[in-house]
Amino acid sequence: MTTTQTEPMDSTDELDPSGAELDTLHRQSLFIPEDEATPEVYPRLTNLSAGFLFDVVVRPVEVEPVEYVCIGVDDSLETAGVVARWNMLWEAGQFRRRFFDRDELPPALARLADLGDVNIAVVPKTSSRYFEHSPLLHMLPRGALERHGLPLMRCGFWPYSTHHAPVDRYLPADFEQRLARAWAAQVWPHLLAGSRMSAFSKDDPIKLLAHNLGFWVPAATSAIQDVLGSFPLIGDPVEQRPLRLVDGSELPGAHLGRVRAGGDVWAGEEEAQQMLTATVRRADSTGNLRAVLDAVKSNRVHDDFSDRWSPAREDFERKLNHTRAKVKVSFVELPDDTPVQGPESEVVGNLVTNDFLALLDERQRRIVVLLSTGVTRQQEIAELLGYANHSPVSKRLAEIRSLAATYFGLS
User: What burial class does residue 62 get, using C-beta atoms within 10 Å of its C-beta: 0-12 exposed, 13-18 middle, 19+ buried?
Assistant: First the structure.
């Protein structure tokens, strides 16, 4: 039986989803179902070949490093299409602007093109900075994401092409901080093997560097381009010849070339871990990583460490004690007079009341300070510190002597 509709159909009833339906669609486009996020295929980052839109590409003889610039991207298909084409021309590097008429570029992108031949990749401006740090997020295994309260995002794309969901709405408010902690935990073993990150203070330079996402994005970008550079060229061969501009002049440092195929840059935890390792290696060239690490390790101070033991702290203290071995210090408690430091201690000035005090806990430091200011009787010290008798003071003085003997190599 055939039915007919006599009243015109309201297209919005069929085409415009409700708020709940739109929310579901957005979540489905952003997040991968848990049963699909298996170690064999997750995490994953892929690339779309420019060959879908271009037959040839202007290829620089020497490619300048990529710079990411955040711009406001509206919801129009026209703007999305131009941004996607701009980024897909990553092989053109600093010459990608040559593929566009200025009039067809959105105002923000047109202003970037006016800067000249600069290798700029654009990403949408978001409060979470998701698109800027996307390459790092998509290197992290599922376990690391879940430990730090990060969602399981669908496959990432490099460079950015397009998106449909308002990503900020679905990410934690502190997304960037969570990602920094997750990334630091994964990269730390590559920076300081054998010592846990918790063994260092929050202000330790290497610890701060591990959390600095901006430091790692250029290295990740370089590692990604290394992989994409190994993808095969597609299309018909192109004659190698000077590139002539519309005005007849030659574009120096460039030649025409075939575009490369696209495909997965990595897929699965094993390949993602290999990319993380490659990122650390690349950080030597993009951020002088090895030189930074060597400089920090060579200039350690006590404040770099937490109160936890680590091989790095043990090495530091061994070297420090070896350096101080030539210092001769006497710490003498007189029952009815001030403690005396041996005459040799004058050579090192206030070493005892600075470097050495850093090794003592708060109660031990109070005793040393009182002794150094003329309060010398154990019972008097005990009363000032609120002890019932002098026994705790006597015990801590013994601890201080032992620490001093070890610190100055006198044991």
Answer: exposed
Tokens linked to 247: 């005005």
What span, in angstroms and rounded, lies between the C-alpha atoms of 30 and 171? 10
The per-residue pLDDT for range 43-77, each reduced to its tens digit, is: 999 999 999 999 999 999 999 999 999 998 877 88
Residue 97: how many other CB atoms lie within 10 Å: 22
Burial of 249 (0-12, 13-18, 19+ CB in 10 A): exposed
Give the three-state DSSP class for 45.
strand
Run of H or E residues at 251: strand 250-258
pLDDT tens per residue, range 80-127 = 899 999 999 999 999 999 999 999 999 999 999 999 999 999 999 999
3-state DSSP call for residue 90? helix
> Residue 309: left (phi > 0), alpha (psi -120 to 50), or beta?
beta
Q: Model's pTM, two decimal places? A: 0.70
Alpha-carbon gap, residue 281 to 135, rounded angstroms: 16
The full set of domain ranges for the chain reads 36-298, 325-407
Round to the nearest angstrom and report the end-to-end CA distance of the chain.
103
